[in-house]
Amino acid sequence: MRFDVITLFPELFKPFLESGVTRRAYASGQVEVVLWNPRDFAEGNYRRVDDRPFGGGPGMVMMAEPLAACLDAALAARGRSAGVPVMLFSPVGEALRHEGVVAWAAGEGAVLVCGRYEGIDQRFIDQRVTHQISLGDFVLSGGEIPAMALLDAVARLQPGVLGDQGSHAQDSFNPALDGLLDCPHYTRPEVWQGEAVPAPLLSGHHAQIERWRRDQRLQITAERRPDLIDAARSHGRLSRADETALAKKL
Ligand code: 9WO
Question: Does the model's pTM come out above 0.90?
Answer without folding.
Answer: yes
